[in-house]
Design a protein that fits this description.
Shape: globular
Largest sheet: 4 strands, antiparallel
Strand content: 25-35%
Order of helices and strands: EHEHEHEH
Strand order of the largest sheet: 2-3-1-4
Helix content: 25-40%
């Protein structure tokens, strides 16, 4: 087990290519893409059209802690220009390759 950072990005699917390119630059190559996500943001009391009428994606990626600053520097301008959210949290990675090899 070792510590990693979990990156969760929710944005319009139109920006998916730019976001994935930004993740690949600091060598964050593993990620999940969940399409057609919906929800409500911080604008409580109003219908959150950005999260219900558009085709949104959720991107989940994990990386070494030292790669977070370059990732944020690349992702922030995309989200500032086109909208979306990004959360970063601590996680623990359990490598499963030894479990598979033992089968």
């Amino acid at each position: 087990m070792h510590s990693v950072k979990r990156i969760e990005i929710v944005a319009n699917s139109f920006e998916l290519g730019k976001i994935l390119d930004a993740l690949k630059q600091p060598d964050v190559t593993g990620y999940l893409v969940i399409r057609n996500v919906a929800g409500q943001g911080f604008r409580q009391g109003y219908e959150d059209l950005d999260m219900t009428m558009l085709d949104n994606v959720c991107i989940i990626a994990f990386c070494a802690p030292e790669k977070i600053k370059p990732v944020v520097a690349l992702i922030r301008p995309i989200l500032n220009k086109f909208g979306g959210t990004c959360y970063i949290s601590d996680a623990i990675e359990i490598r499963s390759t030894q479990c598979v090899a033992s089968l």
